[in-house]
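This follows on from our talk about sequence and fold. Please put the record directly below this note.
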Amino acid sequence: MTLTNQDIVELTEWRRKLHRQPEISNEEEKTAKEVVSFLADTGPDKVLTGLGGHGVAAVYDSGKAGPTVLFRSELDALPIEELSGVPHASQVPGKSHMCGHDGHTAILAALGRQLGRERPASGRVVLMFQPAEETGNGAAGVVADPRYGEIAPDFAFSLHNLPGVPFGEVRLKPGVVNCASRGMRIVLEGKTAHSSMPETGISPMPAISELMPALPALGRATFADDDFSMVTVTHAAMGEAVFGIAPAHAEVWATLRTRRDERMADLCAAAQALVTEIAARHRLSARWDYHEIFVASVNAPDAVEHLQRALDEEGVVHGQEALPMRASEDFGLFGHSARSAMFFLGAGERHPSLHNPDYDFPDDLIPIGSRIFMRTARNLLG
C-alpha cells in the first residue's frame, strides 16, 4: 500500500510539470492529456475522457461484485500571476496553480500507481480528475454527462490542502463543510442625458447608491447558525468613462452565500425583490442572472466514518477545527447521488494562503494524502 521513494520522486516531478503549464477552468485540455499519459503504465481497466468538458475518469476494476468508490481531484488553475519564485513556477503569464489542484491531481495519480500494482479485492475504484472546479460548472458538467452513469459511485471522497492548519494534520467533520454560493449579476437600465442637464435622463446612480449597502444588509444570523446567509458586493460599474454624458447603464455584481442549499432560494428571492423595488422607485428597468453556482458540500456521516478509520489507522492527527468554511467547493454535487465526504489536509500554519500569488503546493503532502485515500479504498474494497 506504500509508495516507493522512486514513486515519490516521479510524482513530485510530474506535479511540478503540471505547475509549470497551468490551464484555467474549462481550458484543461493539455492537463487532461497529461493525466491520461501518466496513468497509462498503471493499466486502468477503463478511461473516460472529455467528461463534462475535459474531465478524465480512470477505472480500476476488481472484476468482482462490490461498491464503486470514487476519489476526485481538480484539474484547473487560476487567472493569477505567480509570484512564488520557485524554480518550477508557472510559465504561462497570468495563470498559475495557486490553489494546489496540481498537488491534488498528483495524489490521485499516486493511487493509480498503487492500484495498477494491485487491484481492489472487490468492487472498483474510480479516479475522477474533474475540470472547472473554480467556476462551479465542473462537477455539474461531469454529473450531467450521459457517461457518468458508467462510473456512478456508491461512495465519493475528496481532499483539499488547507494553509493555516499544521502540516499533515486533517480537518474533518460530518455535515456542512463548505457553503453554497452563487454570483448575481444585476443590470440596471435608464436613459442617458447631457451631463449639464441630468434631469432630462434617468440615471442609475441613486439606485446603485442604495443597492450597495442594502444587498449586504440581507445577510442574517452568525456563521455558526444553519440559517446563516451573506451577500458580498464584488463589482460595480456605471456609464461610460466620459464627462459629458449622465449615465443610463449600470451593473452590480454580488456573491450570495448560505450554509444550507435550502436557504439559497430565500436569499435569491430577497435580493431579487430588493432590486425590483429600488429599480422601480428610480424608474429603471432591471434584470439579473446567476453565475458560478456552487451547492453546499455536506459530508455524509458514514463516509466520514470511513475516512476517520483510515486516518486513525495511518496515525494522522485529525480534528474538526476550522470547519465548516465560508468558501465554496463544487464537490458537494457528487454527494447528491453518493455518500460523500471531503477532508482538509494541513499545508502548514505559516504556509501562504490559497489564491495568494506566492502559494505553492507542498510536495510532501503527496504521500500523506495518497496513504489516506488508499487506506480508505482498501478498507472498503479489500
